[in-house]
Write a structure and sequence with these properties.
- This protein has five helices and four strands; from the N terminus they run αααβαββαβ.
- By secondary structure, the chain is of the alpha+beta class.
- It has a four-stranded antiparallel beta sheet, with helices on one face.
- α1 packs across α2 (22-29) and α2 (22-29) packs across α3 (33-45).
- The longest helix is centred in the first third of the chain and has 13 residues, at 33-45.
Length: 158
């Protein structure tokens, strides 16, 4: 997955607003609309751009309770880890899931309609899973920053 200085500029632009037209992005990056479309298509097919998404307010759609949950598994066996990853991917309540090092095996970002709703989720998702050793929930008080933008550095020219 290689990209050049112009690709880096395009990536910076689309991370701020992916609804801009290829013409506008091209103007900002010093390209024609057609050249910009070709680069965007390549960046997507190469997996540099993984998805084009809209960030939705959990509160606005009736899911005002947000939690970060640290999950520890009983054993770190590949089949157990793979099953839990699959459960994370299939759960609508889990917005983001990370397999991590440190005190926990996974960190999950979860939304819920209410604390009662979250309690029902924990019974279903954690307590009924015999491979879960334990979990710790941190309730989000204020979402200070949200997004998926990563810093993009232009590669050094040779």
């Amino acid at each position: 997955m290689q990209y050049d200085r112009t690709d880096a500029r395009i990536l910076e632009i689309v991370q701020k607003n992916n609804r801009l037209t290829s013409e506008v992005i091209g103007d900002m990056a010093g390209l024609s609309a057609t050249a910009c479309q070709r680069r965007l298509k390549r960046l997507r097919s190469d997996g540099i751009i993984e998805a084009d998404v809209s960030i939705v307010s959990a509160k606005a759609v009736g899911r005002p309770i947000q939690m970060l949950v640290m999950v520890s598994l009983e054993r770190e066996r590949s089949d157990i880890i793979d099953r839990f990853k699959k459960a994370i991917k299939s759960s609508t309540e889990v917005v983001n899931g990370f397999y991590v090092t440190g005190d926990a095996d996974f960190v999950l970002y979860i939304t819920a309609r209410s604390m009662e709703d979250y309690e029902q989720f924990t019974r279903r998702f954690f307590y009924e899973n015999p491979n879960i050793k334990g979990f710790k929930t941190m309730v989000v008080v204020d979402r200070v920053k949200v997004g998926f933008a990563v810093p993009v550095e232009a590669p050094l020219e040779e």
